[in-house]
Write a structure and sequence with these properties.
The protein is α/β, with parallel strands linked by helices. It has one domain: Pyruvate Kinase, Chain: A, domain 1, CATH 3.40.1380.10. It is built from five helices and five strands. The longest helix has 76 residues, at 205-280. The radius of gyration is 28 Å and the shape is elongated.
């Protein structure tokens, strides 16, 4: 009977775990839909912003800005966007692997999310700033981060600034990416860009560029934050669903084992009773 009691305890424990993972799955699913809609909606604006920047850069090559300045040094600052909590599959591990493969070994870091901040600190990497971002992502949080990155670049502390985040593809797929943010490289794949000769800039292309570039950097950081948040909620929902399904499967196996042991115990008791009755005859 001790075995039966142990199995009952295990079944109860697994059921409690399944209830927790199911609740976490439902919460992640609710947040996932909002985060996915926000990330997808931002892509259209990002595409149009890329087109405007490309039009200016192609039509007015003499328009310059400090944020476009290419440097020969190797000092790199990387913005890492990870998660604050775990239980979201391998997205943080995959992102850390991409950072190791695509960045300078002596780079410094700005972090969003405690998971990779802790990892970088354990590795002895220099983290110059850490940010906390609300959910859903507000644009003001992105502006504060991009302002710091731009200031570090303009002051000459770094020659290159990159962003490492997880790009949302769909609910089942998220891809880690490390992309250059500064110096700004005007996009070259805007197929629908209109010839710049059709535009008249007032007061000047340089002034327009000075207004566009900070907005461009702010929105790039904002879009990366939204993509990362959509990836996090999607990965957590999938991970919690898998955990819930595994728990249910385990409960069935334990229940089957419990029933077999119980049936065996009952059969044994019946045999003992039958044997005793025959002995009394």
């Amino acid at each position: 009977m001790a075995n039966l009691r142990d199995i009952r305890r295990r079944i109860k424990s697994v059921k409690n775990t399944a209830q927790i993972t199911r609740a976490m799955q439902l919460v992640a699913a609710a947040k996932m839909k909002k985060a996915q809609d926000q990330a997808i909606a931002g892509r259209a604006y990002s595409k149009q912003l890329n087109g405007v920047l490309q039009d200016i850069s192609e039509g007015f090559s003499d328009a310059t800005h400090a944020l476009l300045e290419k440097r020969t040094g190797s000092r790199e600052l990387i913005l890492i966007i990870s998660t604050d909590k775990g239980l979201c599959g391998p997205i943080n591990t995959n992102l850390a692997r991409a950072i190791r493969a695509q960045s300078s070994p002596d780079a410094d870091y700005v972090t969003v999310g405690r998971k990779l901040r802790i990892a970088m600190e354990k590795l002895g990497r220099k983290v110059i700033a850490d940010f906390s971002v609300k959910d859903p992502v507000p644009f003001s949080d992105a502006r504060a981060i991009s302002t710091l990155l731009s200031r570090q670049f303009l002051e000459g502390n770094y020659d290159k600034v990159s962003v490492a985040y997880t790009r949302f593809v769909n609910t089942l797929s998220q891809v880690p990416e490390v992309v250059q943010l500064l110096p700004v490289v005007p996009p070259a794949d805007h197929a629908e860009a209109t010839a710049t000769n059709d535009f008249l800039f007032e007061p000047s292309p340089a002034d327009v560029l000075s207004a566009i570039l900070p907005l461009y950097i702010n929105f790039k950081v904002f879009q990366a934050l939204m993509e990362a948040r959509a990836s996090e909620h999607s990965a957590r929902m999938v991970a919690m669903k898998a955990a819930t399904d595994n728990a249910k499967k385990f409960i069935k196996e334990l229940t089957l084992e419990y029933n077999k042991l119980r049936q065996g115990a009952i059969t044994s008791e019946l045999l003992e009773i039958t044997t005793a009755m025959k002995a009394m005859e």
